[in-house]
Design a protein that fits this description.
Four copies of one chain form a homotetramer. Chain A is an alpha/beta fold and about 350 residues long. Helix content of chain A is about 45%, strand content about 15%. Chain A contains 14 helices and twelve strands. Chain A has helices at about 25-30, 35-55, 65-80, 90-100, 115-120, 135-150, 155-170, 175-185, 195-210, 215-230, 240-260, 285-290, 310-320, 325-330, and strands at about 55-60, 85-90, 105-110, 125, 130, 190, 235-240, 265-270, 295-305, 335, 340-345, 345-350. In chain A, the strands form three sheets. In chain A, strands 6-2-1-7-8-9 form a six-stranded parallel sheet, sandwiched between helices. In chain A, strands 3-5-4 form a three-stranded antiparallel sheet. In chain A, helix 1 (about 25-30) packs across helix 13. At the C-D interface, helix 5, strand 4, helix 9, helix 10 and helix 11 of C face helix 5, strand 4, helix 9, helix 10 and helix 11 of D.
C-alpha cells in the first residue's frame, strides 16, 4: 500500500548542476528550484518576463549608489529597450550618472581607506569607490548654469530631468540613464531631488538668477498618480528601497482615491538588502504592501534580499536573452515629456489636479 | 622582571555587573567598557553630552517608522528641552505624528497578519503596527484643507511645517513633534515631503485651490546651508538614515562652498540598522563621511548598529538624568520661523541665495 | 451613530514617555506598547518572567563573543540566581570566561585597527576588542595540564566542564560562568567544543598523556535528551544562535522520539542579529521551530533582532528587580554533576542510552 | 598644463554592459570593475583561480542550509574535480546530503507557511523549504544501524564520515557530497557533529550497541592541524561561517604552535551574510583573521556579503569554464582515509599527537 504524499510536499528541490559555458538565463533556470534568495532571484526573472508579456506600465525605482557603483548602463539599457516605462530615482543616482556621461569617472577604492587622507586630497568615498570632489563641484556648476537658462517658473522634477537629459545629450552625445531616458521619452521622477547634488546645483542657480531652481515636487505626486489613473494596470520593479520605492507605491494609492479602476500593482519585484523587522520602508515586504492596496491581491511578486550589484548584472543579462521576443511584441506606453504637461498615449497627464474618473455613469 | 605591557592593551573590558534598581544612566555607564554595539550606545550617550556642553547647533535626522512605532514623544521631548535645535524628518514620521496629535492612534499588530484581510478591512500595516486607512484619508483631507487656506506662493518645507504645526497646536492643544517644534520655535525640514502622505495632502489641496501646495524644497537646501554658514559649529544626531541623514550632511558640504569657516560636524552620532557594505547612504559610516568633509577631522563620533526602538528609549531616559545640568546651562540658537525668511539669533537666513562669507579681506 | 471599531484595532500603541530616573524595568514596561524590536525586547522580559513562574527547566544557549565582549558576569549572575538551569555554550565563550576568571583581561580596541601591526604584537582582535595571544597560549597550557591529570576515559563535555569549573574555582576562587555553574551545580554543554581554544587545550593534553582529551559529545546528545525525558516541561533562552540554539532544540526533538510526554519548549525567547531569509539556523524564527516540534503549539515566544550587548544588560537589569519574588518562590531542578552519570532531582540521566518512557501501560 | 591625477584615482569603475548570451565567466569578468559586493564576487572568482594555480591545500567550510537549499551537487562537483582538498561542514549539510543521496527529496515551500499545520503533517520547515520528518527518522535509523556495525572504538569525525560515505556509496551508487568525497578520497571534518541529525543517529546507535557512536572530535583538531603541519601552504574557502569557518582557521593557528613553517592561509575567500559589527565569528572579517595569524600578511583575500544560493551558482559556473586548464595542471594532495590514521601524500597524519617540526637543528 503506497502512502498518500503530503499536500505540502509537491515540488522537489532540484539541486543546481554545474556545467561549463552556462549563460545567465540558463543559470537562473537552474536556480528556480533551489531555495532562499537564489530561488527568489530566479523568480524575479520570471516575474519580470510576465510584466513584459502583460499590458502594464512598468515603474522602476532605484536607490543606493548604483550609478557610482557601475550599474548605470544596465539601467540605461532597461530604459532604451523599454523593459521599464518610468523611472523613479534618488538624486544621487542621476547625479553620478551625469558625472560619467560628462566624461568623468568613479574609481576603484578601498573600504579601509584613510578618510582623513582622502579628505585632504579632496576625494569623496562611497564605501569602496572614489570620486573627485573637484569634478563634483564642476558638475554642480554645470547644473546651476543650465538651470539658470530656464524660464523662471515651477518645474516638476519630471519635466526638469527631461530637459536636463536633453541638454546633457546635446552636450555630450553619450549614453547614460538621463540621456537614454531623454532619447526614449521615458519619464524620470526624483521626489527627493532636494536631497542630492542635483538639488545642490539647482540651489546654486539662484545665486546668479533669482527665482531659478523651483521644483514642484507636489506636482510630481499629482502627475505620477494621473499616470496610474490614465493607465491603471501597473507593475513595480524596485532596486534598493528608499524614496523611489514608496513614491511608486504612493502613486498607486493616490490614484485609487480618484479612480476605482486602480487596484494596486499587478506585478512587483524588489531587490534590496534591508529587512522588514525594524519597520523601515526600504525593508518592508510586498505582503505588507498588500495591506495598503499598493499591490493587487493576486499580484505576482517577489522580494530578493541581495545586493543589486550582484543580482542585477545576472538578472539583466538573462533578460537580454529571454526577454527579446517579449520586447519585440511589447507595446509600451508612449510619452511626450518636453513641457509642463506630459502625455501618455496621447492623453494629457496634468500636474495641477487629479483626473477623477469616478463620475457616476449616466 | 616585569614585561612591558603592549601599547594596544591599555583599557580592560569591564564586564557588566547586574544589580536591581539600576537607572538608565547607570546602565549606560556600565556599558561603557563592554564591547560591540553596547559600547557604542554608551559612547553615543557621552557624545550627546559633549554636544550639549559645547556651543554647536544640533541637527537631528529621523527616518524609519519611528512615530508610528511609539517614539514620537521622545522626539517631542528632545525638541522641547532643546537637546536638538533643528529636525530633519521624513514626511511619514511627521504625518504619523500629526495622526496621533489629532487624537487618533496606531495599534499593536502582528507581522504575520493576513494582509488581504487587512486590506479588506482597510487597515494599513507597518510591520507589527496597524492604522486605519479611513483615518489616514481624514488626515489627508485635513492637510489639504489647511494648505488651501494659505496664500498661494512657494513655501519651503520648513516654513510650511512651522505653519502646519501652529495650526495643529491651535486645533488640538496636544503634544507631539510638530506641535513641540512649533512651540519651541525649532525648525523642521522635510526634503522628501513629496514622498509622504503630507505630500499627498498637499497635492490634494490643488483639487480645490489651483496653485496651492507649492513646496520649494530647493529653498530648503539654501536655507539649511545658510543656517550652517551663520553658525558654522554643528553636530549631527541621525536616527535611521534615509534622506534626513544625507540632507544634514549636505547642508554642511553646501555651506562649505560659501564659507571657509565651515569644517564639518564637530560631533556626530547615528543609530540605525543598515550596514555600509552595500554602498547605500543609510548604512554609510561616519568615517566615510569624513572623506566628504561632512565631519570635522577630529570630530567625536559614533555609529550604533541597532533598532532605534531599543536604543532611543534607553538613551533618552539616561540623558533625562545626565543632561539636565547641561541643558540648564545651554544657550541654544533662537529662531523665528513664521515667515518665508527665518532668522537664527537675530540674523536672517534666506532661502533664495547663499550668504557668502568668503569675501577677500580688504 | 458610532462606527464599530475594527477587530484589528484593539490595543493602541502607547508612545514612550521620557522621564529622569527611570529604572530598567520601568523602561521595559514603557516599551511594551511601542513597536518593532523595542516591543519585542519588552515582551522578552515578560516571557522570561513567565518561565520563572512556571515549572519548567530553562535552557540557555549562548553564541557570539559575549564573554570577551563583557557579558560573562551577566551570564554568571543568571546561573547563580537560577534564572536558568542548564547552559549550552560555544567553546569560545567558556574559554574567554576562563581567561578572565584566571585574572587576565580583554581590552578595549578598535575595529579599524592595523591588523598586521596587531599580529606583530601578538594581539588577537575580536571586532573592537583585543586580547594577548601569549596569555591565550598560557590558558591552553593550563587546560592541557589539567586535562592530563584526568583519568583517561571518555567524558561528556558536560562532565568535563563541571570538573574544569571546579578546578578553576579551587585555583582562583573567582566568579565567572564556569565557576558559577560549578558552584550552583548547573550543567554546561558544549557540543562544538572541538571548535574552540578549550578544544585546542584538550588536544594538547595528548602531547604529554596519550589518550587524554577524549570528549564524548555524542554522549552529550543522549544526556541532554534524557534531561528532557526526565522533566519534559522546558523553556529556551537563546543568545545569538549557533550550535547552542540548535542543540537545545535537538534535545527536545530527540527526547520526543523516546517519550510521548515531550512536546517542545513551553516558552522560548531568542536575542540575536541574524535574519531568517538566508535559511541559516541562527536566524531561523521560532515559528519555523514550531514545524519541527521544537516549540509547543501554544508556546509563549519572542525573537528580538538585536545585539545582545545592548539587549541583555537592559533585560537582565530589569529582571534583577522584577524576577526577585519569582526566584524566591522558584524550585529549580537539582543536579549532581561530578561524575559520568549526572542526576536531576535524584533521577539518573545516563549518557549511554535514552530513557524510553513509551512502554505500553500494563 | 595638465593637472597630475590623484594617486587615489587610478582605476576607473567600468559600468557593466548588458549583452545577450553572456556566460557566467563573462558576467563575472564584467563585474570586476563595478563596486560593492558585485566587485567582491568577481574578486572571489580571481582569488579561487589563484588558489588553483598555486601549490596550496584548499580547505572549504560550509554552514547554513546549503544542502537542503539545492547547492549540494555544486559542492560535490567541487570535491570531485578537486577545486578543494578538504571539506569542513556542519552536520546538517552532510545529513541533508545523505537524505537526498538516499533517494529522498527536499521540497519547495513557503516562508509564510502555517507552522502548526506543518507540525501536524510532520513536515519540517527550513525557511522556504520542506522535508518529511518521517523520512528524517528513517535516516536517523539508517545511520544508527550503520554506526552499530562498526567496531566500538573512538573515531574522528573524519574517519567516520569517510566510512559513512563509503557505505552510502555502496548502498546507493548515487552522487552527493559524502559519496563524492568518499570516491575522491577527500577528507570531511565535522567538528560540531553532535549538533546535527548525524549526531542524533549516532546517539541512537547506543540503544542497540553499548559503546557505539564514540566520536573523537579532539582527534579531529590534532589531525587537521597535522595536515597543515605536513603541508603548511593552505587556502580557505568559507561558505556561511559557523563552526567550519573557525575550525579551518584553528587548524592553522594550532599548527603554528608546533611548526614555524606555518604562516596562515595564503588565500582566503568567504561568502556569507553576517556582518562583523556584532562580534560574532561568522561575520568576522578576514582583516581581523590576520591579527590572529589565521591569514598570511600578504594573503589574497576577499569577503562577499551575499547569500550563497545566489553567489555560488554563478561562481561555480564561471569556474567550470575558467578553472578547467588550472585543474588539469593542478597536483592536489593525495589522501588515504579508510583508517584511524590518515595520510597525505604518503605521510601519516596522526590524530593522537601533533607532529612537531620545531626541533632545534643539531
Amino acid at each position: 500500500m503506497t502512502k498518500k504524499p503530503s499536500r505540502f510536499l509537491q515540488t522537489p528541490i532540484e539541486p543546481f548542476v554545474v556545467e561549463a559555458g552556462l549563460t545567465a538565463d540558463q543559470i537562473l533556470a537552474r536556480m528556480e528550484r533551489i531555495s532562499f534568495q537564489g530561488r527568489n532571484l530566479a523568480t524575479a526573472h520570471r516575474v519580470w518576463q510576465k510584466m513584459l508579456e502583460d499590458d502594464v506600465t512598468i515603474f522602476m525605482g532605484m536607490a543606493g549608489a548604483l550609478s557610482a557603483g557601475g550599474l548605470r548602463l544596465i539601467v540605461a539599457h532597461l530604459i532604451q529597450h523599454r523593459y521599464i516605462d518610468c523611472l523613479v530615482s534618488t538624486g544621487a543616482n542621476l547625479y553620478h550618472d551625469l558625472h560619467e556621461t560628462r566624461g568623468q569617472r568613479h574609481y576603484i577604492g578601498s573600504p579601509h581607506a584613510d578618510d582623513s587622507a582622502l579628505a585632504e586630497s579632496r576625494i569623496d568615498r562611497v564605501y569602496d569607490t572614489y570620486a573627485s570632489e573637484e569634478e563634483f563641484c564642476g558638475n554642480d556648476n554645470w547644473i546651476a548654469a543650465y538651470a539658470a537658462t530656464l524660464e523662471p517658473r515651477a518645474y516638476t522634477s519630471r519635466e526638469f530631468l527631461h530637459l536636463l537629459g536633453g541638454h546633457l545629450w546635446k552636450t555630450t552625445g553619450a549614453n547614460g540613464i538621463l540621456t537614454a531616458a531623454y532619447r526614449a521619452n521615458v519619464p524620470i521622477f526624483c521626489p527627493a531631488i532636494a536631497d542630492s547634488s542635483i538639488g545642490m546645483g539647482l540651489s546654486q542657480s539662484r545665486q546668479t538668477k533669482p527665482g531659478a531652481g523651483l521644483i514642484d515636487i507636489i506636482g510630481d505626486i499629482v502627475e505620477s498618480a494621473n499616470l496610474v489613473i490614465r493607465k491603471p494596470r501597473t507593475a513595480s520593479v524596485v532596486l534598493g528601497g528608499g524614496t523611489p520605492k514608496n513614491f511608486i507605491n504612493q502613486a498607486s494609492v493616490q490614484a485609487e482615491f480618484y479612480s476605482s479602476e486602480v487596484g494596486g500593482h499587478r506585478y512587483a519585484l524588489q531587490i534590496g538588502t534591508d529587512v522588514p523587522q525594524f519597520g523601515g520602508a526600504s525593508g518592508s515586504t510586498l505582503e505588507e504592501a498588500r495591506s495598503w492596496g499598493k499591490l493587487a491581491a493576486d499580484a505576482a511578486q517577489v522580494s530578493v534580499l541581495a545586493d543589486a550589484t550582484i543580482a542585477l548584472p545576472l538578472l539583466a543579462s538573462a533578460l537580454a536573452t529571454t526577454a527579446a521576443p517579449l520586447l519585440a511584441r511589447r507595446k509600451p506606453p508612449v510619452f511626450t515629456l518636453a513641457s509642463r504637461v506630459m502625455t501618455i498615449d496621447g492623453l494629457t497627464v496634468p500636474c495641477d489636479r487629479f483626473e477623477e474618473v469616478n463620475e457616476p455613469a449616466v
